Amino acid sequence: MRSVDLPTHARAQRLRRDAPTAEKIIWRHLRNRSLAGHKFIRQSPIGPYFVDFVCRERKLIVEVDGATHSTASEVAHDLLRTKYLQQNGYRVLRVSNAAVRESIEGVLELILAAMEEQEG
């Protein structure tokens, strides 16, 4: 059995429990290999960061951004975070809460297209 860092595990559980509506919507379409058979996990730690959704096989991270990603300091933090994740081999795809709520099918197509780019 794999050792679990309890504070990390507890934080991941809290993030999943308190997920915004848009994250819950997208999760319904990503869980249980529902998107073209690809395995996604949510609120997973990668280095010092927790990512909303990750497909480790394709090294693709999907971040669902709401209004809290709009101030200068938040944008700067997101840039540092993205740079770290990219340096560790991940591609970061950012989608807005509004896009998820208004066009989940469009968001899923965007994710699939990003995964196909990773393939080639």
UniProtKB/TrEMBL annotation:
GO terms for molecular function: endonuclease activity. Residues 9-115 form the DUF559 domain. The keyword Transmembrane helix does not apply. This is Very-short-patch-repair endonuclease. The keyword Nuclease applies. InterPro entries: DUF559, Endonuclease_DUF559_bact, Restrct_endonuc-II-like. Pfam families: DUF559. The lineage of its organism: Bacteria, Pseudomonadati, Pseudomonadota, Alphaproteobacteria, Hyphomicrobiales. Keywords: Endonuclease, Hydrolase, Nuclease.
